[in-house]
Amino acid sequence: MNQQDQSRRNFLKVMTAAGATLALANTAKAQPAAEGKNVALLKTPPMEKIRVGFIGVGARGSGHVGSMLKLEGVEVTAICDTHEPSRKASVARCVKEGRKEPAGYGEKGELHYQEMLKRDDIDMVIIATPWEWHTRMCVDAMNAGKHAFTEVPAAITEDECWQLVNTAEKTQKHCMMLENCCYGREELFCLNLIAQGMLGELLHGEGGYLHDLRGQMREVEHGTGSWRTYHYIKRNGNMYPTHGLGPIAQYMNVNRGDKFDYMSSVSSPAVARAEYAKKNFPPDHKWNQVKEWKGGDQNTSIIKTALGRSIIVQFNESDPRPYSRINLIRGSKGIFMGYPSRLMIEGVTPKGDSWLQDNEKEAKLEEFMKKYEHPLWAKMGEMAKKNGGHGGMDFIMLWRIVTCLRAGEPLDQSVYDAAAWSAVGPLSEKSVAAKSCNVDFADYTRGAWRTTPPLGIIS
Ligand SMILES: NC(=O)c1ccc[n+]([C@@H]2O[C@H](COP(=O)([O-])OP(=O)(O)OC[C@H]3O[C@@H](n4cnc5c(N)ncnc54)[C@H](O)[C@@H]3O)[C@@H](O)[C@H]2O)c1
After folding, report:
1. 210: which strand partners?
2. Which helix H or strand E contains 239, and what residues bound it?
3. Which end of the chain has fewer CB atoms within 10 angstroms, the N or the C?
4. Each residue's pLDDT tens digit, 137-159
């Protein structure tokens, strides 16, 4: 064989391998048949009182118990946690606040929550367990006739995303992911600004979850680090996409006029957690016995939407760095950027310049933000700040849910949002494993994204 033949052969070999990788990565799962009607604008019978059951009352779930006790028209009827001290602490909190003692579940193990779901005095279930439990618990809750509210992400595989959608449609129950960052003051301000056309036509967004959480590795027996650390060991992709992405998706009316079309993803090397383990734990500690930390410290994913917009989603919970969710939204007339907050709108801010939080232009920005304050924040902001939870957004989110359920109105986030926003996790893993090949998003709405109206200005 001459040299030319050899290089042609090598070329063909490489192209065949690349084609196979591409085909592997890009194959969107076949769309399963719908088992019920679309639930994007689901209305349910109004309820004066909302009876709540909790599954998982660790760091996050216990906070939700406290917030729900402050809301009018809410009764906590049952609490499940396999960890007895956590369960007892939340039950005791209800009693301390003058409520009837909720029934406790969890002492019989990981599936004891299913006994709790058999109760007929629960309307909604709040799930704040480790990620791998979210879909299963939502599906069981809906099948038992309860509305399901889960912490983020709602699902960690593409199959789980479909399970959520199909069960919500089959049971006609709400299934909402508790994406609290959609209720932050700046995110609501942006939503309002965009709805009023101030940024022009939207072109590009950037969001992320950039938060040094290495300290959680000290939680070995119980708590977030005791289960989340295994995800960093085993998975490589964007494991926590929804805090940064959810607000951007709402700005762009994703699932309500636009949809995520495809994405690609790349991860950096994984270094920080091994370094942290070496520095902070003895050599025989289990975190020092890990042979390979698969999850790259930094993941960057790029999404293209059906209307052609671009979105960058970043993930990094491993490196020393200041906290950021990025929150950048770019339109044809201007841009808002978070962390720190900056705003530039042609004809509003000085030419070629922005108003920036934390400098002399801050007063201008604040004045403008007040002018375009979202009505929901204007109404609830002070009360939310007093009640706390990530600057008040957690409280506003729960208040909105309870208000909508009591009135029988549709929720702000649908099961299609939960599925599409969470799908970035498994799709990023697929893309990273295939040299950043493009991977398609499933259309969880089965075409209804074209006709579902944008989220109105809620208040
Ligand atoms: N939205 C936010 O701002 C935010 C903030 C923190 C955590 N979270 C999310 O909240 C969830 C919980 O995180 P966390 O930090 O509270 O973790 P955590 O480990 O402190 O709490 C989880 C609890 O679930 C319990 N649990 C586990 N399996 C169970 C089962 N089968 N049945 C009953 N109870 C079970 C555990 O005993 C534990 O008490 C995660 O999904 C996390 O991503 C969200």
Report:
1. 316, 324
2. none
3. N
4. 999 999 999 999 999 999 999 99
Spatial strand order in the sheet of 299-305: 355-356, 342-345, 334-337, 328-331, 202-210, 310-316, 299-305, 260-267, 439-440
Distance CA 335, CA 13 (A): 46
The alpha carbon torsion through 310, 206, 192, 341 (nearest 10 deg) reads -150
Secondary structure (3-state) at 253 = coil
pLDDT tens per residue, range 399-408 = 999 999 999 9
In contact, 137 and 164? CB cutoff 8 Å? no
Asked if residue 353 lies in contact with residue 344, where contact means CB atoms within 8 angstroms, the answer is yes
Strand order across the 175-177 sheet: 103-105, 74-80, 50-55, 124-127, 147-150, 175-177
Cα(263) to ligand 1 centroid in Å equals 28
Judged by DSSP in three states, 337 sits in strand
Categorize the per-residue pLDDT at 168 as very low, low, confident or very high, splitting at 50, 70 and 90: very high
Architecture, CATH, for domain 182-374+413-450 = 2-Layer Sandwich (3.30)
8 Å CB contact between 213 and 251: no
- Tell me the CATH number for domain 50-178: 3.40.50.720
Pocket lined around ligand 1, Cβ cut-off 6 Å = 55-56, 58-61, 80-83, 86, 106, 110, 113, 128-131, 133, 151-152, 180, 223-224, 390
How much distance in Å is there from the Cα of 224 to the middle of ligand 1? 7
